[in-house]
């Protein structure tokens, strides 16, 4: 039986994008939650863990180049992004197997960082391929549902594998945790292997089929039009302000990602398993919120207002944490509320970035915004050491609060500068809807 193409079947299209994002989130649960907590329990210092996180996050900053490469080169008979997606998932599986073969963190921390870098290098290619595919095959009216499902799927993948791999590390060691993560990615890889982007395309290189007329019409054939088009799009004042807002907002997230495991395990004396369980629970709550609430809320009040509310909430929460982080029960409540606010901020950021990414270079421009998102996360994680030296964890929380407030200013400026937003209502502009 021949399966329908993704462009022809809405439930298959939305379900596949959600599962592909879950496969993107699964390695993050291992690398960002379970492994740092394991490091902390093994006596690895906060600065070393922050350095590990900063290194493994760096490949996400290369998404600009990934997007340009994918927009320029495509093997159209198999789809515009599907061959890139399959290749990225193969490399991701191999990198996780390499990660599984490493020794103890006290003896091989640099190799853990290198293997984590490789995992995220493949993950970043996978992410750009999925986003590009989504831009190509989603109808404008589907973006509300799709953004919530995709981000919710990723967050649930992170939460589920943060919990699962944390338990596996406790019982069997990190090797089995990495292998199980690789196996999940391999199962999800069946989707791009079995489903075409558009009807009539080749399923495999040796299969019958040909490039669709849509793919041929939008494919960029030369470098210069691509580079000049992207440059003009990014030099728009609204795009520059949005880029600054994304960078600053995710500096705060990177800093929080770096300090969370050592604060919980070494300062609050949480058991490593307790931290991974609670962090995964927070991610689970965020994922469910992303799937069932974020789209409805953004449609109700508008994604721009929802984004502003999320950033204000994060600023207030971090400001309160400067005085209360050692209070009994506060930090678990912090993790839960932060996860919900972060998911809302992220989904709205994705939608706004999609709205400002238009024309033949839309996928590349969107990948630039997402590269800045991840570059900010990586740079933010690297700032923990000097902030702790200046003022301890209180200084880290205060920096997160200030960065969220500054980001809100840049987002507001971007909206003011965007003629499209000034001349249309948020709820009727389908490119901005969630």
TrEMBL record:
Q: Where are the transmembrane segments?
A: 35-62, 83-102, 108-130, 175-195, 240-260, 280-299, 306-325, 331-354, 366-387, 393-413
Location, primary (coarse class): membrane
Q: How does it sit in the membrane?
A: Multi-pass membrane protein
Q: Which InterPro entries match?
A: AmpG_permease/AT-1, MFS, MFS_trans_sf
Which terms are listed as keywords in the entry?
A: Membrane, Transmembrane, Transmembrane helix, Transport
Q: Which Gene Ontology molecular function entries are recorded, alphabetically?
A: transmembrane transporter activity
Q: Which Pfam families match?
A: MFS_1
A cellular component annotation (GO) from this entry: membrane
The entry's localization annotation reads: Membrane
**Alphabetized PANTHER family for the sequence:** MAJOR FACILITATOR SUPERFAMILY DOMAIN-CONTAINING PROTEIN 3, SOLUTE CARRIER FAMILY 33 ACETYL-COA TRANSPORTER -RELATED
Family recorded in the similarity comment: Belongs to the major facilitator superfamily.
Q: How is this protein named in the record?
A: MFS transporter
Naturally occurring in which organism (per UniProt): Henriciella algicola
